[in-house]
Every structure is written in structure tokens, then in C-alpha cells.
Specification:
Two copies of one chain form a homodimer. The first copy, chain A, has 358 residues and is of the alpha+beta class. Chain A contains nine helices and 16 strands. In chain A, the strands form three sheets. In chain A, strands 1, 2, 3, 4, 5, 6, 14, 15 and 16 form a nine-stranded mixed beta sheet that branches. In chain A, strand 3, helix 1 and strand 4 form a beta-alpha-beta unit. The radius of gyration of chain A is 24 Å and the shape is elongated. Chains A and B meet through strand 7, strand 8, helix 5, strand 9 and strand 10 of A and strand 7, strand 8, helix 5, strand 9 and strand 10 of B.
Chain lengths: 358, 358
């Protein structure tokens, strides 16, 4: 393979068979992770992509394959994720070059320190000669394990709303204030957190999480005056997600109203869902059947490079089972049989690409 | 008055009329408070006690009156409250002398630095020649204000249970973990906090507070793995309080069970209720009626020196309305008309003591 590093720090290897068509297939995932991470998040997808190149040779794929090991997917250093895939998708906002890391180094300087030229980021963008992009990644969740399956094709990456709700009541002595004279912010927040959970349980595919709560003064003998709660809502259908958020806000207003609490909300995120390419996804599902595996489609609840790349070229994803649903942790792992399944699917997938191109 | 400071730092003034009986009446409250406090917590009771000595002269009380300005009621410096009243009640555990303040100074050394002798703490205890103790104090709560009343006699000081419940589930990705595969510690804690409130609302005089919650990892995009919640339960009847705590623990176990959470609990406090002396309390209530005030009895939800002194001699308390229910805050205040009411009640109370003694 011909290997280079683009201006965003993506490591890119090009394999080109003799007499190849003009179009390329792009494979890959990211090679960064988080502090105290596991060994498979991202990098397994890159290793599998290299194996698929061998499979491409076997099936005599008449296309070049470019394997991309994306940089900075997690956003650990500069606080913004998908730096590498943004550049590949031609969506790199130059303002991001001014982001600073904890040591005060800008993203632009970090790229220069790596002997790359940030003024050439546009060159990293994929051109029109791309058939599509396939990313393989561990699921980072418990769904495949709970169903006893090795792999799944990702149909869509969920849209995500993130908000903070602040309930304000009156901090008061927990001994001298009778129940009927209280305006307890934590009791109000608790009632609402239960609503968040029960609404999400009722709607198919909806996930809603209150993961963070900050209470003031947060003392055992003082009625809470303020409770700030995070809300994270995800669904593959944007209307379903937005309706759920509106309904949870109405519920919060009703709870605050009846308890004499003030309610403030701020929205941190409103990110639309990203569907994967139907044709490539169908190839993956057919390849599962052809490999003797169950035809499993699922929704990804987390973001991936494929979500960003999809804005530029047709994109698809294959998930591999995550034992224990564990990720971003040293215990993160993958089963050998599931890696084998991903290779079987790869061979069958590439056979379908050969047919489609030929 | 003859004034001295006892070995616990209590400032004590003795007024003795000519031909007084042997028995003394004790009046007073504390003169310490908390950082950033108001001007009335404790010290108003001491000022009123001095005024009652003038009233005692007017009604020709045939008893001596000792006014005690208690030291260290709040427990700010050494973390343990009621140091002064413990000594007066003869309940000063010598082990407390080893308590250290934030600067490493022991309570014993602090007493010596004040030119007092900690080996003489027993001398501070009240002897048998005491008719009783009356403490006046601001209510530090909203009850009298909500009923439009100036003063109330305290029938009992509530017993108090304080516990911490820890719900442990599994921290997981808020995007990739479907609702049905979650063990969300915060959702479990929220359900239980609602139970705490609804149980307390149903039972007369019961107050139960979850004022503190600590969640791990407490991040918007991670399902909570651990939620630790404080429980503070108070009631004037110990059986009612203990039954409520048992019932809330059973509820917590049920919630943890159905959600697959582990539950741990630790108990920090199990302090019995302290009834005030019936005869002295009746004198206070009769004195209200004789002053044209409503005969109001109430329960104190907070601890006071009278609670400690009651273990040694008959004790009673008179609460004065707290505007806004505010205490331990610079806005803490008291109405002049309520101070006047407390003086009227004092005169009528002392008349009853004269009759009872005479």
C-alpha cells in the first residue's frame, strides 16, 4: 500500500490492484482513544480494514481501497471530536484550528508540530471518485451480547438532544420546615427523573438519561434549594426525539408549577440523526446471511467517524459484539469468533461490490 | 447579679432576692452561632432571660434565678454541639476534651487557653436545688409565621434518624445502552426520594428529607453507577420515627431489587425525642392565654440546649416567630411585637411559679 499522512493527521494507505476502476472504496476507523481506555475501540476497525484488503485481493476487487486510520475521533485533546473525519468529509471549520489543549497549544500549532500543514486541510477531503465508506467498530453497548449475535449492520446513528434543567426552590432547615411548607428542589428533580425513565421505557428505540445531578447546598440537614439535572435523549428518528424532549419539558414545567419551583433550561446539543447508506447496508446484511449469520440491523446510540463521513460519501457500519457491553475501559475486549464473523462478512460484502461494479 | 464563668465557658449570672427559697430557676440560651449568622439565634434567649429577672422582681419571685449563656451550642469549632449544656447537665464525656479544632487545638487546651480548668467540668453541673429550666429561642422555622402567631410552647424536641443509602448499579454509555438493559443508580435513587417525600406527607408531624445526593460518575452521557442519598427523619414519637425509617428502608430494598441494584445503608444518628416538662409547659401555655395570646403548643424539629438540660432538671421552651422562617443567615430577625409577647408570657409564667412555690 502507498501510505501517507494527510494534513489532519489521518494515516491513509492506498491499495490499488492492476487495471483498477477509477472509484475507490474507503475503509477504516480511528486510532485515538480515551485515557485509561481499552485496546479495541477504533483500532480494531483499522486492523479489520487491512484484513479486508487481503480479502479484496482474493475476490479480485476491481477497485482501489483506501484504509484510513482517523485521528482525534474522541476529542480528548481539544474538546471537539471527529477532527480527522471532519477533514476527510471536507467539513473542517478553520475556526477549530484555534482550539487550545490543556497546555495552551492550539490545534493549528499541534498540526504544525507534527510537521503537517494546516493550510492544506482541504486536500484531505474525499473527492468524487469514492464508491463508499465502511467502518467496523465494537458496539460499545450490550445489545449484540444480549441477543447472542456476533455482528450487526448499523442502519442509522441516533440524533441527540442534550439539555440541563435547573429546578429552584427554597433551601431550608430539614428539621424545622414541615412538609407542607417546603419547596424542595431535589424532590421535584427526583419526580422528573422518574418521568424521564418511564417515558423512554414506553417508546420503542427511545433512550433518555438523567446522568448528572448537582444539588445546592447538598447537605443532609438542609432541604435542597437548587437541583440541576442533565437530560440526554437519543433516537434514530428526529421527530420522535424532539417530541420526547418537548414532552419531558412540559412534564418538568408541570412538576415545577405544582411545587412552587422555578424552572430554567439550557440546551447544549440538538444533533440530527444520520442514516447510513441503504445499498451498502443491504450488502452488509446480505453478506451476514451468506456467512450463515443472523441478518441483524441496529441503531448506533453513539457517534462514529462514519456519521461525519456520511455527509460526503455513502457510508455504512458493521458493529462487532462488545463482551459485557464494556468500552472506554481496560476490560474492553472482543471475541475471536466475532472477528472471524466480521472477516466472513467482509469477503461476502466485497463479492457483492464486485458484482455491483462489474 | 453575681457573675462567673464555669469550666465549660458558660457565662452564669445569679440573681438572688432577699429571703429567697433554696430552689433556683434557670433561664438562658446560647451565645455562640454559626459563620455568617444572624443576630438572634441563641442570644435573643439570653437577653430575654435577663429581662425576665426584672419581671421576677416585679412579681416578687421568692426564688433565685440563674441566667446561663451557654457556650458552644452549635458545635462549629469542634464538630460536636452542646458542649456548654452537656457540662451543665453533668453529661460531659471527658473524651470530648480530646476533640481538635481545624487548627489542631484540643477542646481541653482551648478551655485552658481561656484560663479555665477542664478538670473542674463536674462543678458546672446543676445540683438538686433547681426548680427547672426555661429556654427562649427563635423558632428557626416557618410554622408560627404561617399561622400568624407570636410565640409557642415547645412540647417536645423531635427524635432524629440520619442515614445514608447507597444504590449501586452499572455505569454505562447513555447512548448505547437500551432502557431495558440498564441498572441506573440515579433512576433508582430518584424513585426512592419520591417515596421519602410521599410517606412523610401522609403521616402527621413526620418530616423526612433527602437533602444530599452524590452520584458517580455524574456525567450527562453516562448512566449513573452509584447514587448515595442522605435520609433525615424526625418525629416527636420515637416509635413513629423508627417505623417510618424501617418502612423507607423496605421501600429502598424493593426498588433496588426490581432494578437489579445493590443497596448499602449506614446509620449516622438515632437520637430519641426529648419531651419537655409537662408542668412548666402548662405554665407557659396558661401564661399565653393570660396574655391574650393563642395557646399554641408545637414540636421543635431542631435540637436546643433545653434538650440536653432536660436530662438533669425539668425543662421547657418558648419559641418566638422567625420572620420568613430564616435562621443561620444575616437576614434572620425577630418582630418587636413578638419580643413583647415573650415578656408578657414571662410575667404571667413567673406569677404561676410564685403561686406554685408559695
Amino acid at each position: 500500500m502507498t501510505v501517507k499522512t494527510d494534513a489532519a493527521g489521518n494515516l491513509r494507505g492506498l491499495w490499488k490492484p492492476p487495471d483498477a476502476e477509477t472509484k475507490r472504496l474507503i475503509l477504516g476507523s480511528h486510532i485515538d482513544s480515551v485515557p485509561n481506555a481499552g485496546a479495541y475501540d477504533g483500532v480494531l476497525g483499522v486492523a479489520l480494514a487491512l484484513e479486508w484488503v487481503d480479502l479484496a485481493r482474493e475476490v479480485k476487487l476491481p477497485l482501489a481501497i483506501e484504509v484510513i486510520a482517523f485521528s482525534e475521533e474522541e476529542g480528548v485533546r481539544f474538546g471537539v471530536p471527529f477532527i480527522g473525519s471532519r477533514a476527510v468529509a471536507g467539513r473542517m471549520d478553520p475556526a477549530l484550528l484555534l482550539l487550545k489543549d490543556a497546555g495552551g497549544v492550539t490545534l493549528g500549532d499541534a498540526i504544525r508540530d507534527f510537521r503537517l500543514d494546516p493550510s492544506r486541510l482541504d486536500d484531505a477531503a474525499l473527492d468524487a471518485d469514492v464508491l463508499g465508506f465502511v467502518e467496523m467498530h465494537i458496539e460499545q453497548g450490550p445489545v449484540l451480547e444480549s441477543e447472542g449475535l456476533s455482528v450487526a449492520a448499523v442502519e442509522a446513528i441516533v440524533g441527540q438532544s442534550r439539555l440541563t434543567l435547573e429546578f429552584t426552590g427554597r433551601a431550608n432547615h430539614a428539621g424545622t420546615t414541615p412538609m407542607r411548607l417546603r419547596h424542595d428542589a431535589l424532590a421535584g428533580a427526583a419526580e422528573w427523573i422518574s418521568s424521564v425513565e418511564s417515558m423512554a421505557r414506553k417508546a420503542d428505540g427511545l433512550i433518555a438519561t438523567a446522568g448528572r445531578i448537582d444539588v445546592q447546598p447538598n447537605a443532609a440537614n438542609v432541604i435542597a434549594g437548587v437541583a440541576r439535572v442533565s437530560l440526554d435523549v437519543r433516537h434514530a428518528d428526529d421527530l420522535t426525539r424532539k417530541t420526547a424532549v418537548e414532552s419531558l419539558l412540559a412534564e418538568a414545567r408541570a412538576i415545577a408549577g405544582k411545587r412552587g419551583l422555578a424552572l430554567e433550561r439550557t440546551q447544549q446539543m440538538d444533533q440530527p440523526a444520520v442514516p447510513m447508506d441503504e445499498r451498502l447496508t443491504a450488502f452488509l446484511v446480505e453478506a451476514m446471511a451468506a456467512s450463515g449469520l443472523k441478518e441483524k440491523r441496529m441503531i448506533s446510540g453513539a457517534g462514529h467517524d462514519a456519521m461525519v463521513v456520511a455527509s460526503r460519501v455513502p457510508a455504512a457500519m458493521l458493529f462487532l459484539r462488545s463482551p459485557g457491553g464494556i468500552s472506554h475501559h481496560p476490560d474492553e475486549t472482543v471475541r475471536e469468533e466475532d472477528v472471524e464473523a466480521a472477516l466472513h462478512v467482509g469477503g461476502k460484502f466485497l463479492e457483492r461490490v464486485v458484482t455491483a461494479v462489474g
